[in-house]
Each structure stands twice: as structure tokens, then as C-alpha cells.
Specification:
359 residues; alpha/beta; Rossmann fold; eight-stranded parallel sheet; three-stranded mixed sheet; disordered N terminus; binds nicotinamide-adenine-dinucleotide
Length: 359
Amino acid sequence: MNIISQNCQTSPASIPVPGENSRIRKVLIVGGAGYIGGAVVPHLLQSGFGVRDLDLLVYGHENVVLTKLQQPNYDFLFGDMGDRETLERALADVTDVVLLAGLVGDPITGKYPQAAREINDLSLMRCIETLNGKGLDRVIFVSTCSNYGLIAENQTADEEFALNPLSLYAKAKVQCERHLLSLRGKVDYSPVVLRFATAFGLAPRMRFDLTVNEFTRDLFLDKELLVYDAHTWRPYCHVRDFARLIETVLLAPSETIAFELFNAGSDANNHTKQNIVDLVQSMLPNRRVAYRENSSDPRNYRVNFAKLNRIFGFECQYSVEDGIREIIWALKNHLLDDVDTRRNFHGNYDLVRTKAEQA
Ligand SMILES: NC(=O)c1ccc[n+]([C@@H]2O[C@H](COP(=O)([O-])OP(=O)(O)OC[C@H]3O[C@@H](n4cnc5c(N)ncnc54)[C@H](O)[C@@H]3O)[C@@H](O)[C@H]2O)c1
């Protein structure tokens, strides 16, 4: 472990000198302290990668970092990905970058539109500008299937499907995807875009503002679950499958991933909200569910993941049922007793900072 403070130029022991051990790839995870990063960071460490985590800790979720500090090939840097000096420091000795950071989700970007523009548009673009010329191998940009927005009931969206981003969140993702994929011949690394399905499953920083996790929590706690637009479809994917996919992309031959875009998830995990309620209720019977129509979120999309399987032979290992089961297990075993009292730790609800100097 190494903690790089704002004022320290490099961290001494754990960063391999380039060339000293050419087998170690050191991956900078930007936004690695978040929900999905909580699965990606340990997975890459376990697979033998070095990992540096750069995160602005916008929800005050710093203690997830403390749990990783004993890992030998891990270091953490606090800061804003859009701050050039911070990012230059974070990039020292790094071979690859995974971009997870941002204000994630329609509700948080709708609640803080100015911060969303600053982070998801400006900071991210500044970050991407800084990545060129650093001798990086690949840069993985994590985008979202939300970019498909609202599509006809009888269709599924493959990577060529017309985009229909409906929120500030998805509009910024589409803009960034297009920008990265337009850089052919202009940058010295291979960018790849992964459009993630909606995540579920256990991780050190949970997000209970996501459908599978939220429905399971509410029904476990015997609250009345309010479900809007139960017929609407979405694809889902376990955070540990995302972690395995990131590793797959890091290890794939460069020509199969450079300037490519992949939907990330599995066809079998396309579900309606009603399916998810039914799955949770099959494990937690006799709970209360109320239904409403015409919410402010019109998204409804089913996604085709054939390309992921064709190019990498990648299959998701976890079903939505698996995710529900493990969350119920964690709740029953008192691992999430603070789920209501520490609301902001467990979801993207309120920002505690949007800039490094406010820390
Ligand atoms: N969770 C999902 O269902 C889902 C679905 C599709 C795509 N994605 C994408 O996956 C990525 C990770 O999502 P998540 O669910 O882990 O979200 P999250 O909100 O839990 O994590 C985002 C992290 O980014 C950090 N961050 C925010 N602004 C920053 C900045 N300026 N500099 C450095 N760090 C900053 C936050 O502190 C946080 O730790 C995002 O890019 C998201 O768009 C997520």
C-alpha cells in the first residue's frame, strides 16, 4: 500500500520502476472508490496487476479506501481527475487507465446539474486530454446502456443501435464516447468503450439507489416498495462480472479492442422491474408492493450483448437471482445494518464535495 498525499511527488516503495519488472501492469482506476470500483480494484490486485486509485470521494465514502490499504500493490491518491497536476502525478508509472469516475445516475445529475457539467463534461474531457503522450497501453472508458434511452418493445439494442440519451448523465457519456473514438491517429494509446448494464451485487460501497439492490433492501426491511412503470426493461450485470470484464479487456490483444465499443452485460439479465420484484418476492414472500405508472424516468431498453461473447467469449457468471440472494444474506448477517442510517454511504444521494480544495 502507498498513500500519495497532495504534496508528495511520488510514493517510494510499491511503484515499480519502469522496466524493472516488465510483467507488472499498473492500472490507474479513476473513480475506484465507488461502487463498481469496489469490485474492480480487488479483482485486478488478485490477478497480479498493480492498482492506483484516484478518487475525489464525492459522497464522503472514504472508509472504503481504508479497507484496501494493506494490499502491497495498491496505492490511493485523493483528487479531481480534471486537475492536470493531480492526474500527472497519478499517471506516473501507470500502464493502463480505467475511467469509472463521475456523477453517476440520472437522479444525482438532475439534482446537481452544475456539478454534473463540471465533472462529467469538463473534468472528464480535461482528464482525457492529459492521457495522451504518457505511453499508456489502453484506456477503458466505462459508459452506460442508458445511452439507448427508450426503444421499441420488440427491439434490442446492439452497439450500432441509434442512441437516445435522455438525461444529463447519458448525454455526457455519449459525448465522451464519441470524442474518445474520434481520436484515432491522434493519441498514443488504445481507447475502448464499455457500455455497462445497470449494476447489482455486493461491494464495499453499496449503491442502494440501483433497482435490484433497492428492491431487495426495501422488501427485506419490510417497507412498502413503490415501483414505477413495472413493465419497463433494463439490462443488469453483477459488479464482479464487470470486474472480470475489465481484466479481460486489459488482457485482450490490442487489435481486438482498440477504438472498439462493447455493450457490457448478458442477454439473460435483461429484465422488467416486475421480473425483479417477482424474483425478490420468491425469496421474501408476503411483502408489500405498490405500483405507479408514468414516472419521470421514461427509460425502457433491452440490450444485445452478442459482440462481447463473439470477440472475447465472455459470459456473465451471475444472475439477478444470485445478486438478490447475496444481498439478503448480507442483510441477514448484519453486514448492512446501517443501510438506512448511513444513507449517503450507500447511494448517490448528496454530494459532500465537488472539488479537491474543499476537502
Ligand atoms: N452503477 C451502475 O449501474 C452503472 C451502470 C452503467 C455505467 N456505470 C458507470 O460505471 C462507473 C462507476 O459507477 P459506480 O456505480 O461505481 O458509481 P459511483 O458513484 O459509486 O462511483 C463513482 C466514483 O467517482 C468518484 N468521482 C466523482 N467525481 C470525480 C472526480 N472529478 N475525480 C475523481 N473521482 C471522482 C466518486 O467519488 C466515486 O467514488 C461510472 O462511470 C458509471 O457511469 C455504472
